[in-house]
Amino acid sequence: MTAVKVHGGIDILRLPVNEEEHVFPPWHIKYTQSHILHSKCSKSENGCGDQDADACQFCIYSRTLEMPHMPDMVFPNNILTLKHRDGAILQFNALDALKYVANGKINIQLACAEAWKESRSENSEFLEEKVKPFDWTFTTSYTGTISGFQLEETNERIDLDKLRRKEKIMFYHDLTLFEDELHDNGIAACSVKIRVMPTSFFILLRYFLRIDNVMLRVKDTRIYHEFGHNYLLREFTTREAKVQDIRVSPALFVEPSEIAPHLPLTESHYHKLIIPSREELKVEEGTSTSVKNTNRKVYEEFYQRY
Ligand SMILES: [Zn+2]
């Protein structure tokens, strides 16, 4: 582990790429993690070419997102992937999470923009820089990247009591996808956690925003699967409030899981991610350039190795 000086004066720890794979048939679970995204092209002074198939991560991010600026810390290699034997894939990565950040498409309809202006009125220069048609809070409604699942709305809910029961944890991991300190005015962070137990797995993807003295926002995606079932449950919720309307100790504001239950629910979506069986996939075969089939092939190749 070595400290690397990058421009902007931030010392970062360059960690070696770390990865781990676990097989809980019919699931294959893998994560990779490594250092933050570089702050400039790592290949050439002028950046990688548009057609460069082998572009560096910085150029891929810049080109794909076209954001005025990226979060302070982006972890492009922090990726969690779950593959089902029959081809369905669920993944969590920073690039896809950042694609959901409103960029150039919004007219600063941010709920907090006015409150922010008030709190920053002594610093108009900073305000000018921040209030652009770009969501500088990096708010994302990302719920994970899926392929090969059939999606349908559901009234079924994750059995939280069951989750609270003490079950052996066979695998646990926590990855940060991105984080920004909002010029020392709070924090915006997106992370994913997974926990695998003997009878189920549970994933929490969380976007957390705290603008000091202004507001708090938590966007959670919970994914739960009971082994043996042919579907996953996915619950997406947004909770947010202005600081002035929150009646609990500010000491809780630093810990997302502590403050989230005290914030009013403003949005929720409940879905089933159904895993098609191999037979259903066969019917689809040859009908299109189905991603499902490609994924299935990848997965079969993987399975043959075990
Ligand atoms: Zn590059």
UniProtKB/TrEMBL annotation:
<dbReference type="GO" id="GO:0031929">
    <property type="term" value="P:TOR signaling"/>
</dbReference>
<protein>
    <recommendedName>
        <fullName>TIP41-like protein</fullName>
    </recommendedName>
</protein>
<dbReference type="InterPro" id="IPR007303">
    <property type="entry name" value="TIP41-like"/>
</dbReference>
<dbReference type="GO" id="GO:0005829">
    <property type="term" value="C:cytosol"/>
</dbReference>
<dbReference type="Pfam" id="PF04176">
    <property type="entry name" value="TIP41"/>
</dbReference>
<comment type="similarity">
    <text>Belongs to the TIP41 family.</text>
</comment>
<dbReference type="InterPro" id="IPR051330">
    <property type="entry name" value="Phosphatase_reg/MetRdx"/>
</dbReference>
